[in-house]
Design goal:
single chain, 468 residues, mainly beta, Immunoglobulin-like, 2 domains, 11-stranded parallel β-sheet, 44 strands, 44% strand
Length: 468
């Protein structure tokens, strides 16, 4: 039995040796690579600020393993691009193998140095792949832009405030990290055509000063987040917004405020004076903010004309704990697919530390305006009327969406209820309307206007309800 076992043991060993010796060793592929793209393009990147991460894949379409002799970032150590090959960072890689019918991820970032130029610059580089004696290239392109940099650090024991007055020029973008402050008694003017980019949670903060945003028709001042890649075009909550704290009279004309948290936030103590508004905002579009378009809190006063406030996650216009407002020829619109709040919300009370505080609304005017959206009602009141509190509303010649037609005495002459305004393209923010719209020719020209023209610069008369 022992001899039989030894015989079979040697027989198996011999067969294994024979099979191994006769097995043909599989060589490496003599083919080349393919890629998921041939050019990696970065949208505009601010100098000193890193980009988002881009990626592409390297493919081995052969059944055999392929060996890449060399992968090299051609700009070398001077390149602003950062290359990461399947989790490993570097400028050059050797003898990289990809199994048959497999692929490899490549990741790229870019960070540009200040170039002291006002115009955007184009930076190019490439990645060389040498495989089986053949060179293949992926092109890299980035548009870079210098900017004016505003940065405040508010940490315990260390406060660095970026204080601003004078004029922000439009020759380069302005980038805000943390906050850019307008201090008490100071005035900041922003030129037409200026682009203001704000980092996550950043804000332009006006503390008892004056802010004048001087945009023009077709040359607006733009406030938006600092991520310029196309995938961020419609992402809300990228920054906080513009904050007025007990501010002196200020103005915003021809601005676009989009993709923030609250577009314009105003706070001040209750005042009976309604002639000197905290803010006059005209010809301005405020949209896709994660909370409110305009928030008036605790007594601030706003005059608005030819403004489009639309598709915000909270209210378009929210008045909380009192305040004053006078809106003429505005589109105050819902149309946000996730919002459960109305286009207009008027609430004159607020609970602070368990105590209900109540404020007055001395002037609450909405005229010649559209209040509409996807909800069954797009205007809501939650007010407390008590001794010492004044509530004074005047809403007329408006097109209003409301589940039950308003019967309060402040709904006055010529309001239109629940008629579709027939806008041209709601999803693309085109709130012009077709000829059959109930907005056409239905405004009252006897109400005083600040501008005498529509948001497109067209003279009123006969005028339409809304901004257009």
């Amino acid at each position: 039995m022992k001899n039989q076992i030894l015989f079979f043991y040697f027989l198996i060993i011999s067969l294994l040796f024979f099979n191994t010796g006769c097995k043909k060793i599989q060589g490496l592929s003599k083919g080349n690579l393919s890629f998921s793209l041939d050019t990696v393009v970065f949208d505009t990147v601010f100098t000193t600020i890193g980009s988002t991460t881009k990626q592409f894949k390297i493919y081995n379409n052969d059944n055999k393993t392929i060996s890449i002799d060399e992968i090299e970032l051609m700009g070398g150590t001077n390149s602003p691009f950062k290359l990461n090959l399947d989790g490993t960072a570097g400028k050059i890689f050797s003898n990289v193998k990809i199994e048959g019918r497999d692929s490899l991820f490549t990741f790229l970032e870019v960070k540009l140095k200040v170039n002291n130029q006002t115009n955007p610059m184009v930076i190019r580089d490439s990645i060389r792949f040498r495989t089986n004696g053949k060179d293949q290239y992926i092109q890299l392109v980035v548009w870079g832009q210098d900017m004016y940099y505003h940065y405040s650090r508010l940490t315990p024991g260390k406060q660095e405030l970026d204080l601003n007055e004078g004029t922000w020029l439009n020759d380069k973008p302005h980038l805000i990290y943390g906050a850019a402050f307008i201090d008490e008694g100071k005035t900041l003017n922003i030129q037409a055509g200026t682009k203001v980019y704000l980092h996550k949670n950043a804000l332009l903060y006006n503390y008892k000063g004056s802010l004048n945003v001087n945009g023009e028709l077709n040359n607006e001042v733009i406030f938006q987040g600092d991520r310029l890649e196309s995938e961020y075009d419609n992402v809300s909550g990228q920054f906080y917004g513009i904050y007025f704290d007990s501010a002196r009279p200020s103005s915003i004309n021809y601005a676009i405020i989009k993709n923030g948290t609250t577009g314009i936030h105003l706070f001040s103590n209750n005042e009976k004076n309604t002639t000197n508004y905290t803010l006059k905002v005209t010809n301005t579009k405020i949209y896709n903010n994660i909370n409110n378009g305009i928030l008036i809190y605790s007594g601030a006063s706003v005059f608005a004309e030819n403004c489009v406030i639309s598709q915000n996650g909270g209210f378009g216009l929210l008045v909380l704990l009192g305040g004053n407002f006078n809106l003429n020829h505005c589109d105050i619109l819902g149309y946000n697919s996730v919002s459960k709040n109305q286009a207009v919300g008027i609430i004159n009370h607020f609970n602070i530390n368990g105590v209900t505080n109540v404020g007055s609304i001395y002037q609450g005017i909405i005229r010649n305006s559209v209040i509409y959206g996807n909800l069954t009602s797009e205007i809501a009141f939650d007010t407390i009327n008590m001794a010492g509190v004044t509530l004074n509303f005047d809403i007329q010649r408006c097109l209003i969406k409301k589940e039950t037609i308003g019967t309060d005495p402040f709904y006055k002459n010529g309001n239109i209820w629940n008629n579709d305004p027939l806008f041209n393209n709601i999803s693309k923010q085109k709130f012009t309307f077709v000829n059959a719209s109930p907005l056409k020719g239905c405004a009252d020209d006897n109400f005083p206007t600040l501008l005498g023209k529509t948001i497109e610069g067209i003279n009123f008369s006969p005028s339409n309800i809304g901004a257009y």
